[in-house]
Amino acid sequence: MRVTFVTSGLEHLGIEALSAWVRQAGHEPALVYEARPFSSGSGTDSKLLARFLEPTPQETAERVIATKPDVVAFTSYSVTHRWALQVARELKRYVKTPIVFGGPHVSAAPERAIREPSIDAIVEGEGENALLELLECTERDRFGRTDIRNCTFRDNGSIVRNRVRGLLHDLDQIPWADKQGFYETVPAFEHEFYVISRRGCPFRCSFCEFSTFSKTYPGERPVRRRSVPHLIGELKHWKQRGRIRKVFFWDAIFTLDTKWMIEFADAYRREIGIPFECYTHPQTMNREMAQLLAEAGCIMVRVGVQSVNSDTLAAVGRKGDLDKIVQTLDVLAEYNLPYSVDHIIGLPGEGAAEQLDALKFYLKVKPKRILAHWMTYFPGTTVLEEARSQGILSDEDIERILDGDVGPGYMFGGNKEYRDHEELLHLCGVFDLLPLLPPAFIEWLLKNHRYRHLRGVGLIRQFGTLALALRGEPATREHVRHIFATTLGATRDALRRKLRRPFLRRRISQTTPSPFKATSAPRET
Q1: Which end of the chain has the least Cβ crowding within 10 Å, N or C?
Q2: Among candidates 41, 16, 44, which has minimal Cα distance to 189?
Q3: How far apart are CA 248 and CA 253, in angstroms?
Q4: What is the DSSP-derived secondary structure letter of residue 451?
């Protein structure tokens, strides 16, 4: 059976894992990927360029139909959900191929998501075995079977939501990620190699999808990790191609297990030796862990600070406090490990005063980068219902969020009007400028609220990232190259499509009926 995965935005590790899993089982995966660099909230958004250079939902649907799928599988995040629905609706206008949605957004509210007529099944949680069962049912012409665990269906006007099966505990049984589809579409993706060493997170921060883990998977282990040989084997395979410039470990927290890290650091240094970037949490960083990262060749540690207010951290269920944050940054500096900090603007209970405190703190510790994101309320997080009960979000707000409304996006303003919102917009620009400019200038901006004269926060953010890359910060430089190559490639492909489309349509109309007049998409055998 052929399953066509459809996604947009970044390279998608989840799809790569599912693609490898179904291929191992004898099925044929295909990929339709749309970069959408001008409407994905990645920092290069432009409504004008998106209108003229990005494909319409119908054009994407045509690409899907051209793969002649037996099943179409969408991965849905809140930032891509509305786009995915538009493409699915176009598909359903012309073909009867079963459409499956998975991913965090629909997993959070599967009974709501399945109401959408264009969706035939929702896969909740980890999707490997559920997707295999769906493919097997399709192969036997029994896609209408509604008892598959992890799946939600419509059945004669009713909604059937099945129990979630247990997690995959031995991650070494999962084959290496099937990256070829993404690399063929965007060759630059291979320069910054995305990989994970584990699934899950031990913490339950209320703003994160892992906050509801214990409810979805009661009694399950929260973290499962690949063996070092399995991980190093995958890295060696791709290293041999000679195209990787940097490795990015996308684990929510890479620094969890000292014993594992000792084995990893030795093997990575000897057999891989490529600069890498990773995430850490102040609760999981100590002197030994920092030393191991340095020895392995880490060039950037992204520290999840989020807030420097200990009361706020406690209120959102985040382990640690300001003292622990200081200890973490000190030990990273001791081993000359460059670090950036992740910071959230607009956490419940915080306003401009708390952001000013954070800026003063960052002035002292001088991180290489500050990645300031806006508090964005997502389905499947405990903070969503907390915000409703506290009057922060109305019922209408919740409905919008469940329908995929993320507002300007987590980089540019979140999906809620926050306390001191206008003031926060101006302060956001200071977070981006702080690593670039002399401390005296930042202090001058903060004094007497001079930062209020900053305009064009989006442009400041883009300028800050580019300036860091030009200044020679290697991790940011590779990230900028990554974005630039993706944007350039998407623009080139869009122009080619615009030029070829009228010609192709004339040829199709002269030779064969349009695929958009078919009721199914038969495949040659």
Answers
A1: C
A2: 16
A3: 12
A4: G
Q: Which of 418, 280, 283, 286 is nearest to 342 (CA)?
A: 280
Domain boundary among 337, 366, 390: 337
Let me know: does 62 contact 36? Beta carbons within 8 Å: no
- 234 and 278 housed in the same domain: yes
Exposed, middle or buried by CB within 10 Å (0-12, 13-18, 19+), for 455? exposed
pLDDT score of 518: 40
Pair 243, 280 in one domain: yes
Q: What is the maximum span of the chain, computed from C-alpha positions, in angstroms?
A: 73
Enclosing domain of residue 147: 2-161
CB neighbourhood size of 412 (10 A): 18
Q: Are 282 and 256 in contact (CB under 8 A)?
A: no
How many CB atoms within 10 Å of residue 379? 22
Q: Give the chain's residues under pLDDT 50.
A: 503-525
Q: Tell me, what's the pLDDT at 76?
A: 93
Please choose, from the candidates 360, 237, 243, 255, the residue with its C-alpha nearest in 3D space to the C-alpha of residue 302. Answer: 255
pLDDT at res. 136:
94
Residue holding tokens 């041999």? Answer: 240
- The confidence score (pLDDT) of residue 455 equals 72
Q: Which residue has the tokens 């102040």?
A: 282
For residues 32 and 102, state if they share a domain.
yes
Whether 362 is in a domain gets the answer no
The set of residues, in sequence order, having a beta carbon less than 8 Å from that of 257 and lying 6+ positions away, is: 225
Report the number of distinct structural domains present in the chain: 3
Q: Cα separation of 276 and 343, whole Å?
A: 21
The pLDDT value recorded for residue 139 is 87
| 375 belongs to a structural domain | no
* CATH code assigned at 203: 3.20.20.70
* Amino acid 37: pLDDT: 76
Spatial contact of 133 and 147, defined as CB atoms under 8 Å apart: no
Q: Calculate ∠ Cα 61-64-69, nearest 5°.
A: 135
**137 lies in the same domain as 267:** no
Residue 426 is assigned to a structural domain of this protein: no
Do 85 and 223 have their domain in common? no
Distance, CA of 138 to CA of 171 (rounded, Å): 27
- Name the one residue in this structure whose structure tokens are 């594992």: 260
Residue 304 lies in a domain: yes
202 residue type, one letter: P
Closest among 87, 43, 45, 38 to 64, alpha carbons compared:
87
